[in-house]
Design brief:
With 237 residues, the protein is an alpha/beta fold. The chain contains 4 helices and 14 strands.
C-alpha cells in the first residue's frame, strides 16, 4: 500500500541573535507560509548561531506561537535550539513541534571543537510523520557516513539536515546530499542558514534544497534570508 505524498518545506528564516521571541514569530510566519506537512529550519534557528545563548526548554512559553502555527496548519516543524540534557549537559538539538507541543527529537552527535560547551548526543534518531521516516542530522553530522549509516539501520525514507555553512562553503551541503543519496537511496532535505549570524558566519550560504533519490534537485532556495521552498515526496510507482 502506497503512502500519501509528503509535502516538505525548508526555510531560511530571518533570525535576530538571541531573540527567541522574535525568532519564534518568524518561525510561525514561515510555517503558515510553507503550506507543508513538515517544515525544516536550520541549525540553532531559534537563537542564531550564538554558542553562548541560554538553553531552551520544551515547555518554554516563548515557543507557543510556533505550536499555534503548527496547530492551524497541521504541520510538524523541525526547529534548531540549544537544550539542557541530563546531568547538566547541554546539546545542539532539533525540536519537533506540532499542535500538541514540543519535544527534543534529536541531539547533535558530531559537535565541532568550537562547540565545546555542548555534549554529543547519544546517537541517531528517526522521526515518523504520516508513515514517512525522517532521519535527522545537524550540520557536521552530515560529513560522517557512519552517522547516516546508523540512521539507515533504523529505517529512513528522508534524510533531513539542519545546517549552517559559510557562503564560501556553499557547495558542501549539495555534495554531502549527493553522497547520502548514492549511499542510502533516499530523499534529502537540507535547511541551510541564510544571512549573517554568530561564530564568524558573516555571510551564511543559504541555498536550502530538496533532492530526489535519483539525485535530481526538486527545489532550491537562493541566498537570501526569508526564502521558503517546498517539494512533494511520493512513493515510487
Amino acid at each position: 500500500m502506497q503512502r500519501q505524498p509528503l509535502v516538505i518545506a525548508v526555510s531560511q528564516p530571518r533570525i535576530t541573535a538571541y531573540h527567541v521571541v522574535a525568532n519564534a514569530a518568524e518561525h510561525a510566519n514561515a510555517i503558515r507560509a510553507a503550506y507543508a506537512r513538515v517544515v525544516v529550519f536550520p541549525e540553532l534557528s531559534l537563537t542564531g548561531y550564538q554558542l553562548d545563548a541560554p538553553a531552551i526548554a520544551a515547555d518554554d512559553p516563548r515557543l507557543t506561537p510556533i505550536i499555534a502555527a503548527c496547530a492551524e496548519t497541521g504541520a510538524t516543524a523541525l526547529v534548531g535550539a540549544p537544550v539542557q540534557g541530563e546531568a547538566g549537559r547541554e546539546h545542539i538539538a532539533i525540536l519537533a513541534i506540532d499542535g500538541g507541543g514540543v519535544r527534543v527529537a534529536y541531539r547533535k552527535v558530531h559537535v565541532h571543537e568550537s562547540e565545546e560547551r555542548f555534549s554529543p548526543g547519544d546517537g541517531p534518531a528517526v522521526l515518523e510523520v504520516d508513515s514517512w521516516r525522517l532521519g535527522l542530522a545537524i550540520c557536521r553530522d552530515t560529513s560522517f557516513a557512519t552517522h547516516d549509516a546508523a540512521i539507515a539501520a533504523l529505517g529512513m525514507d528522508v534524510y533531513v539536515a539542519c545546517v549552517l555553512d559559510h557562503d564560501r562553503d556553499a557547495h558542501v551541503p549539495a555534495e554531502r546530499a549527493q553522497r547520502v543519496i548514492a549511499d542510502r537511496g533516499v530523499w534529502v532535505a537540507t535547511a541551510s542558514f541564510a544571512g549573517a549570524t554568530g561564530g564568524g558566519f558573516d555571510q551564511a550560504a543559504g541555498r536550502s534544497a530538496v533532492w530526489a533519490p535519483d539525485g535530481k534537485v526538486l527545489a532550491q532556495a537562493g541566498t537570501e534570508a526569508g526564502e521558503i521552498i517546498r517539494a512533494t515526496l511520493r512513493d515510487h510507482a
